[in-house]
Amino acid sequence: MDNPFYYVRNYTPDYGRSIRHRFTQMPVNFTDFESIFATTPYKSIPGYYYGENGKVEPVFESQWNEYNEAISAGIQQFAAEFSKLGFSGNDTIQRYVAETVYQYYFDNPQDQFITDVFANYKDNVSMYGDTQEFAPALSADVVLSNSIAELKQMTKNLEISLSRSTDEAREAFEIRQKIEKLPVKKLKPRDALFPKNDLSNYVVPKKLPAQVVLLKDQFAYASVGWNKNSKKQEELSAFTILEVSSVEWTATGVPRLRTRFGYITAHVNYVATLRDDIDQYIYEDVKQVTVVTPTYYYRTVAFGRPDRIDEQAKRGQKIDVLAVEWTKNGTPRLKTANGYITANKNYVSIDPKMTALRKKAVKGIVKRLTK
Fold first, then answer.
1. Which residues in the chain show pLDDT less than 70?
2. Structural domain for 14, as ranges
3. Which residue, among 298, 319, 321, 325, has the nearest Cα to 309 in the 3D structure?
4. Which of 57, 81, 107 is the C-terminal boundary of a domain?
5. Which of 239, 273, 307 represents a domain boundary (last residue)?
């Protein structure tokens, strides 16, 4: 019976029925990626046993790993999304994508994801040995006090370790190379290619397309970088509702919202996503509403207690709406001559017939309850 083995890359030939399948012929060492498999939540497999129907089952010796849950979810999500691209069965495309990713990893040890995430994976290289980070940061003193050969024993990837270390440590490594009379290779510090801004200051829709409302007048741009020449001439008015087709990022990690007019800011002071239950509110082409349930007027859209006006809109009262304005949470408010009132359909209606029916229904409920 053939006993197949599957590798990303291996250097061992087939032996008898031990068949070795290679995914790529790239002339590189892939042992770095073993740390990914080390995130599995067990320490070792000390033996095997016969399970149901004579099936051979492994004995797992469990060991908690802080990265297992996150990386497992990430792998499953990637596999699901990649499979939707329709490349299944096309080995050429899959191999090209994989080899591009492998090469990027080897060429960019300073990448923010590699230094912030991958470098932190813990692995016990020897069976039952102590776990250690894949590429820990090194201090300048450690770099100066040890040979390069010794430094390589402290990490599985010296370049990644130094990229996530201090400027002083990288300078010390240049001195170390000179001491050992080696060509001086300057290592880059950790890149900040991914968002480094506080994302709580920005609107980043979870699902696309999404609707947002402009809280202030603003211009759109033809490019995500907002170059001067890309500024559109038409100014977009506050409280305009736009559909966002995608979120794109600047080189410094600032999100921009792509709309049919161009790229607009995602800052929370300028845009807001419409609330999830927006269907429960009146906000489109509102000229007049009828009060269904008594409601207060407010001086601002915030509807804070100090903003509340003692005057109350009465049931059945018809109120002219001057404008629809929005809160930072994406809630519409109706601006009237006497102040702001709610746009919630439980309190106001634009359909007089519905209002009459609601009154009748309420009376019927009250009548039944008082019997």
1. 124-129, 192-197, 352-371
2. 3-107
3. 298
4. 107
5. 273
